Structure formats: C-alpha cells, structure tokens
Amino acid sequence: MSEYRSKITAKVEGGKLLRMELELSESGERVKSVKITGDFFIHPEDSLQIIEKTLLVTGIGDEPEKIAANISEITNSQGIQMIGITPQALAGAFLECVKKAKEGEVLGKPDPNVKAQGGINVPEGEKS
Amino acid sequence: MKWRVIQFESHDAFMNMALDEACSEAVAAGIVQPTIRFYGWTPSAVSIGYHQSITDEVNLEECRNSGIDVVRRRTGGGAVFHDTEGEITYSVIAPEIFFAKDIIASYKTICGWIVDALALMNLKAEFKPINDIILDGKKVSGNAQTRRQGVLLQHGTLLFDLDVRKMFLVLKVSKEKISDKMIASVEERVTSLKRAGIADKNIAYKAMLDAFTFGKTIEFGSWSERELIRAKELSEKKYKTTEWNFQR
User: Which among A7, A83, A86, A126 is the top mutation candidate for probing chain B, defined by the most B β-carbons within 10 Å of its own β-carbon?
Assistant: First the structure.
C-alpha cells in the first residue's frame, strides 16, 4: 500500500453525496486504485465499475474537462445512465482526491486535520 | 394486464430484499403477474443503497446492540432506517415496458400513486425529482428503482412516524452531531404522517392500497412456492452475507 491515499466526500448538485477513495502508485505518478461510493443512481448499477476502471487509467494531470469527456464517452457508448451524479462531479472529485493524496507526499507528515479510520484517511468534517 | 397485490406483511430485512428479487426473477420469466406488495420490517432495519459503503453509512455496533438488521439493497440511493412501527414500504415489480423509458418519468408515475394516497388523506404532496415526495415542504417518502432483465423494481417508504434520535444512532453521524440543534434541523427537512395529523397507520395503508390499485385490474394474491423457496435461498446465500453487504 502506498503512502499516497485519500478519500473525499462531495455534495453533488441536486443533493446526492459522492465519496471517492483513491490510492496513487509508490511513485505518486499514476492511480493504483479508485473506489466510488454514494447515494446516487447508476443504471445498470454494475456500470459503476466501468467508471472506476476509466478513472484508473486517467492521467493525474489531465484537465477536468478531458476527464469528464472521457467518462461521458464511456457512459454514452455503453448506454449508462447516471442520476444524481455527473461526469463533471466525478472529474472534480477525482482531481481533488489526487491533490489530497499528493499533498500527503509534499507535506511528508500527518495532516492535523486528517484522522485515520479503517486504513483510509477521512477528514473529520466530511463525515456528515 | 392483471396485477397481483400482496397485502401488508412483515419480514426481516434480508427476506424483504430477497422477496423483491425472487419476484423480479419470476416476473422476468413470465411466471407471475406484475406485482405490487406492501410490507414492514421486523425487526427494525437499516438498508443501504447499492453503491454505498456499509462502514461509511451505518453504525454497525449500535445496530448489533439494538438488534437492528442491516442489508444492502439492489437499488441505488441512500441509507434508510426502517422502524418497525414507523413506515409503510411498497414494491412495484413489473416489466419495464409498462413504464416510461425515462427513469425520472417512471419515478414520477409510481411516486404519483403515493401522492394520490396522500391526497386520499387530504394531504397535498408533490413529487420532487429525483426520488422524493414532499409534504409541507418536507420529505415524507423516499424511493429507489432498478431495472434488470427487463423488469422494473421500484421500492419506497411512506413515513408514518419518525424517531430522529434513533435514526441518528444507527446511521453514521458523529455523536456530537446528535445535538438538539441537529435533530431540529432534520425535523425541518423530514416529516411523517403522524406529524401531518394521520394517527392511524391502517388509514395510511388503506389509502396506499386504494391509490396503487386505482384503475388497475388486480387480484389479491400470495407468493408462489417457487418465489418463497428462491427468496429463502437469496436471503441466506446473498442478503445475509458479508460478501454482499460489505462489497463496497
């Protein structure tokens, strides 16, 4: 498990909650794992894994517009419907997760605002 | 087309979810009629949305200590506390061609039946997309839908009574958030039939039954033996398992 892990919670326009958990590789240059959870709807439901796989091969320096366009392309081509969540929200959450994971690297010390929970760092203020 | 209506019955959380799935399979196979069922949760339970993380959303220790079941649904949406006495739950299970292809439009159709039920109780409510019904500006019903193998399953709850303190104990919100201020804030956003002046749960159920069946050819029925066998199997081998409930 690398040092570069993060988890964020974002409120999506319309009120749904999007949580994303991400781990970067040892080098901090690519995404090693990503997990999306939340109270949104995706039809068919198991398509969430397709979106996670898309993010897994996304460049961590990509522009949000490009990431959102990639997600849209995949969802449109496969007939995936997202309700309460958008490609833009996913792209924003992804980049925020990457940023937080990288900040851990830059700081090189525990962030006082971040507490460990279940092996994943969860900012206290994001629990509600 | 004739609908089968299964009148109110209570099961544990695992069997409730298993019956929805067994019925969906039977409707997909064309061996049972489209079905409307009404049910309760005994013991009280928490259900989480298909995409949620159980450890993020549920205070598992509190649930264990209080004898509250926890189950993952096949549908998306959020975590819900199902108090045995606090709600009436329904499922509509039918070929998806019965409803609009547009998912929000189909929510509006089925949620419209709940709005009609409330109207029968002289309560003016409205559907609020994506999946809520609002009474006096507050949420009184939450709903969730999935479509698999050509079958639409929508289930949802109509809140009869609401124990906010209990809800906060089982859903994962930090202890300091369970302040009077926080509870007041939830009560400003969520309401129940009791708060709206409906004191008898049977009146609410009768209204639901009338509104859901209005204009339909129906037959009051029961589960087929095949559905019950399959539901028991799904309950044990799927909905009670760590693999299913902790998959995210």
Answer: A83
